[in-house]
Design a protein that fits this description.
Blueprint: H1 8-21, E1 24-25, E2 44-49, H2 51-63, H3 69-84, E3 88-90, H4 92-102, H5 106-121, H6 124-131, H7 156-173, H8 179-193, H9 198-208, H10 222-246, E4 254-259, H11 263-272, H12 278-284, H13 286-299, H14 310-343
Helix pairs in contact: 1-3, 2-3, 2-5, 3-6, 4-5, 7-8, 7-9, 7-10, 7-14, 8-13, 9-11, 12-13
Length: 344
Amino acid sequence: MKITTIKSSELKKVTLFLIDKKIIFHPIISPNGIPDFSFYNNKDFILILDRNILVPILRLAEKGTLKDDFSLKLISSLLTWTEYNGVTITAGLALMEYSHFKQGDNKSNIENNVFLDIFKKINLSDWLNLAMGRTKTISPIKSRNIYKNDFFIENDHFKMHYLEMLKISQLYFDKNISVENKFRLLFLWIYDNVLICKYTIFYSVFVFGEKSKIFRNANNDYEEIINKCTNQAWDLTYLSYWSSLYFNENKSKEIFLFATIDKELKNLFSITYKDNLDIFTETFGLKTGKNIIENMNKTLLPREKPEIDSVKLDKMITDEKQKLKRILRHLTMHNQNCAFRKIE
């Protein structure tokens, strides 16, 4: 790998561009997507990529370019910045997500081999030239590596978040329950069944407060809703798994950052680390918001960390999917009856 000299003005442009786009996150270093590495000297930084950043990186490596100029600048700027600053990039979670989507390791291993070759075959100068707009293409990678890893493995973080999304979707589509009761039932269910995750709590505000578009226009379609729950569960998995890594990082030499271009995911992370519960009152009004907060504080009390049994989680997933199916069937019948009465 040849040595590349970067002008300070070029590095500044790359850095300011990434700061402006707010794609790198950490609860202390970058709670709002604007990194500040003060007081973090002599640490090894590792950047976790989510799926929506990994895919264009792989496409750029394999095709040699991207059709979208903005994506080309964003990806090349990120790779310039990480390589220049010695930040290690990992795509393990994104590859695990893909293996579950494909129900096997083969496609994920193909992607992983391309990903590993990127850092062997593409120079910093190539990324810099793309980032500065001096070029539009690089030499495509044709990986012949046959490294194999186990990406298609059980992930209890995902299973818990999938369960949470099934419960949230049930409550969302049940029109006979008030907003306050939706939260009360969700808090009770979480306390009784899974680990308490603040990302899930704040995401439920997005859903019940119609700040998320996840279930809009779903038309009570069970398969579509299941797919949406699966995708969102992976988003929550990125955040919760990552939080388990940075939880004790003051005692570690490694600092884990997270990169995403998903607007809702970025918003969720930033709101979670505001250290206040204003989103409840801002979304549902002062009275209702305060009642929800009071109920949460009464329900989600400190407790011993429960044992998580993967077999039990699988059984719960089957049961909660059946509950969702029944709610959607009832809602569909109700809507059909209403439509029939209007015709009469």
